[in-house]
Amino acid sequence: MNLSALFIHRPVTTSLLTLAVALAGVLAYWYLPVSSLPQVDFPTVTVQAQLPGASSETMSTAVAMPLERALGRIAGVNEMTSSSAMGSTQITLQFDLTRDINGACRDVQAAINAATSFLPTTMPNRPTYRRDNPADPPILILSLTSDTLHRGQIYDVATTVLAQRIAQISGIGQVQIAGAALPAVRVELNPNAMSHYGVGFEDVRKVITDTNVTQPKGAIENATQRWQIQANDQADKASDYAPLIVRYQNGAAVKLSDIGTVVDSVEDLRNTGVKNGKPSVLVIIKKQPLANVIETVDDVLAQLPQLRATIPASIELSVVVDHSMSIRASIKEVKHSLLLATILIISQTI
């Protein structure tokens, strides 16, 4: 008895087996993961450090080299590349494929902690790291533009409001803000004016630093009562810094506005985004490793009305890149092919 006869003489068993295979196929179709690329977790970690105002040579020697020495001691590092630019350094670590990415991140954090004592004390923040996966591109990019607010104010709204709200949506793995930086006050000094008044760069730095020192103001008390002295002496706008007195010359006060220009700006002028010729801040959204791309994008798009309600009305929130469109087209084509295949198979059996 051949294999075909076995099924011909048992029609009930054959029918049930065929039905079971068909049901298994239907269930498998609904549970198939949806992504533009196969899920491949490359153990790659990127370390970033910033020192505003430092040249690329300074960043390379004073920041990158201590970090490279510490990171080079980590086991399982196949490749380490670094690049230094004005005020920033980026080091990329490629680990062996068998290396656990979570363990690699812990080792990177330990190496950063070990190298901290060798880094410049003037760095505003400690070096940070993040997991990178070249096979995991962003699924959605949002744009924020405004006709009345500058990029620093828009960036502040994006980081404090939008990023936190979007990160809480199911399936979201990472939310990055690009195209601007946090608001800051920039002091553009005039060397000729500084030379005329006999003011040095260290004098200006000390005045600005002392202006924002938070110290206790003390208290006033008597035998029965005590009053705590409180004052807000923090400067956060250009108008607060311009009248600062740097020094006295011939009995006259030399103010910061006399030796330079003080303007409200952002921390990094070289980070910018543009949409249709207008300054823009970008919200780059990435999914979790096993999340469904289409469902995640639909959840974010469904939240857009609520997100627009939480930000100032002068900010326009729009979608500029939706990587789920190609996936939707591919799935539509797959459904079409499956339907045609099913019709052809049924027509052949009738």
Q: What is this entry, summarized?
A:
It is built from 10 helices and 15 strands. With 350 residues, it is an alpha+beta fold.
Question: What does this entry look like structurally?
Answer:
The chain has 350 residues and is an alpha+beta fold. It folds into three domains: 39-135, 2-Layer Sandwich (Alpha-Beta Plaits); 137-182 and 274-350, Alpha-Beta Plaits; 185-266, 2-Layer Sandwich (Multidrug efflux transporter AcrB TolC docking domain, DN and DC subdomains), CATH 3.30.2090.10. Helix content is 40%, strand content 26%. The protein contains ten helices and 15 strands. It has helices spanning 3-8, 11-30, 56-71, 101-115, 151-167, 191-197, 201-211, 238-241, 293-310, 324-349, and strands at residues 44-50, 77-85, 88-95, 128-132, 140-146, 172-178, 183-189, 219-221, 226-228, 245-249, 252-255, 260-266, 274-275, 278-287, 315-322. Strand 8 (219-221) and strand 9 (226-228) form a beta hairpin. Helix 5 crosses helix 9 (293-310). The model has no long low-confidence stretch (mean pLDDT 83).
List the helices and strands and how they pair.
Elements: H1 3-8, H2 11-30, E1 44-50, H3 56-71, E2 77-85, E3 88-95, H4 101-115, E4 128-132, E5 140-146, H5 151-167, E6 172-178, E7 183-189, H6 191-197, H7 201-211, E8 219-221, E9 226-228, H8 238-241, E10 245-249, E11 252-255, E12 260-266, E13 274-275, E14 278-287, H9 293-310, E15 315-322, H10 324-349
Antiparallel strand pairs: 1-3, 1-4, 2-3, 5-14, 5-15, 6-14, 7-12, 8-9, 10-11, 13-14
